[in-house]
């Protein structure tokens, strides 16, 4: 179902990736899960671990205008009438390199009615003392400029306690409110005074989040950082580079009887939801052009 699976190891870390969607299906530190895993030979639940490209999040009605032409993407979230998480998530990526600590997969996004551009995508996973690092490079191998965006889709796990008991921190100043029915973005709002203010470590509690954040502080290396801590002291975190100025956070809320709030989706994004319509931070890949974004997951 998901094609071949690939195991990489280094020190205290092990990771397993499947060919479909180049999805991270398991990441462990000293035998403890850092992401919500899924069976490598079964369906991928809730887009866990996939690489979302050539756009992250939603495109409203699957329709957008590019270079004067309106394009219509297939709607894979029909209940909200949106095209969700790109075109590469259902593709079986091809292995280019598989070493003990490193894996490189690639896939080709072919021109279609909804996305009339040809891209070569390459995802490089590597393990080291700093955890799991992933870099995704897109190359425009077609003859026309292409709109582009990307993000990962892991569900992080801080420890054995329920998500409500985890403490979260990340330095975002603003977030995008959304429509309640379709989760489409509204005007940017400050996190100050809101339950979404995690600039200082705060308990998640019963807060429900499925929103994008921005105006995120970076360190001297140009990276941003999120940390998620369990009451026991175990933790998981992410770092990402300045090519991802947006961050989607989702508390994975589900209606009964489905299992709810199993992990925290943390998605560093190059552009916000519905960016193909707003134009905000959409990357314009010229023919022959490339773009790389990277992020890491670490734990202890």
Q: Which key features would you list for this structure?
A:
300 residues; mainly beta; Beta-galactosidase, Chain A, domain 5; 9-stranded antiparallel beta sheet; 6-stranded antiparallel beta sheet; 27 strands
Walk me through the topology:
Elements (H helix, E strand, L loop, with lengths): L4 E6 L2 E6 L5 E6 L2 E2 L17 E2 L5 E3 L2 E4 L2 E4 L9 E3 L9 E5 L3 E8 L9 E10 L2 E10 L5 E3 L2 E2 L2 E2 L10 E3 L2 E5 L12 E2 L11 E2 L6 E7 L7 E6 L5 E6 L5 E5 L13 E6 L5 H4 L4 E3 L4 E10 L1
Antiparallel strand pairs: 1-2, 2-3, 3-4, 5-15, 6-9, 7-8, 10-11, 11-12, 12-13, 13-27, 14-26, 16-25, 17-20, 17-22, 18-19, 18-21, 21-24, 22-23, 23-27, 24-25
Task: Describe the model.
With 300 residues, this protein is mainly beta. It has a single domain (5-299), classed as Beta-galactosidase, Chain A, domain 5 (Distorted Sandwich), CATH 2.70.98.10. The chain has one helix at 275-278, and strands at residues 5-10, 13-18, 24-29, 32-33, 51-52, 58-60, 63-66, 69-72, 82-84, 94-98, 102-109, 119-128, 131-140, 146-148, 151-152, 155-156, 167-169, 172-176, 189-190, 202-203, 210-216, 224-229, 235-240, 246-250, 264-269, 283-285, 290-299. The protein has a 9-stranded antiparallel beta sheet, with no helix packed on it. Strands 16-25-24-21-18-19 form a 6-stranded antiparallel beta sheet, with no helix packed on it. The chain is globular, with a radius of gyration of 18 Å. This is Galactose mutarotase. InterPro entries: Aldose_1/G6P_1-epimerase (IPR008183), Gal_mutarotase_sf_dom (IPR011013), GH-type_carb-bd (IPR014718), YihR-like (IPR037480). GO terms for molecular function: aldose 1-epimerase activity; carbohydrate binding.
């Amino acid at each position: 179902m998901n094609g071949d699976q690939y195991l990489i190891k280094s020190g205290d870390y092990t990771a397993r990736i499947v060919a479909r969607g180049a999805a991270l299906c398991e990441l462990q530190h000293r035998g403890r899960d850092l992401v919500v895993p899924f069976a490598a030979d079964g369906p991928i639940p809730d887009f866990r671990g996939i690489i979302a490209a050539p756009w992250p999040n939603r495109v409203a009605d699957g329709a957008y205008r590019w270079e004067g032409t309106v394009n219509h993407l297939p709607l894979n979230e029909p209940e909200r009438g949106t095209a969700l998480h790109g075109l590469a998530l259902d593709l079986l990526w091809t292995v280019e390199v598989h070493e003990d600590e490193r894996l490189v997969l690639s896939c080709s996004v072919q021109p279609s009615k909804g996305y009339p551009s040809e891209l070569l995508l390459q995802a490089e996973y590597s393990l080291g003392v700093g955890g799991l690092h992933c870099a995704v490079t897109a190359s425009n191998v077609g003859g026309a400029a292409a709109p582009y965006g990307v993000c990962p889709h892991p569900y992080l796990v801080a420890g054995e306690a329920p998500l409500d008991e985890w403490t979260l921190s990340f330095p975002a100043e603003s977030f995008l409110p959304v429509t309640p029915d379709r989760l489409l973005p509204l005007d940017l709002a400050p996190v100050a005074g809101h339950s979404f203010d995690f600039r200082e470590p705060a308990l998640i509690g019963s807060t429900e989040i499925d929103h994008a954040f921005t105006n995120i502080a970076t360190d001297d290396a140009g990276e941003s950082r999120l940390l998620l801590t369990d009451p026991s002291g175990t933790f998981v975190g992410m770092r990402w580079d300045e090519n991802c100025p947006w961050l989607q956070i989702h508390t994975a809320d589900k209606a009964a009887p489905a299992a709810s709030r199993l992990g925290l989706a943390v998605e560093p994004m190059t552009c916000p939801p519905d960016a193909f319509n707003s134009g905000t931070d959409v990357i314009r890949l010229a023919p022959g052009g490339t773009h790389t974004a990277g992020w890491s997951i670490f734990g202890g």
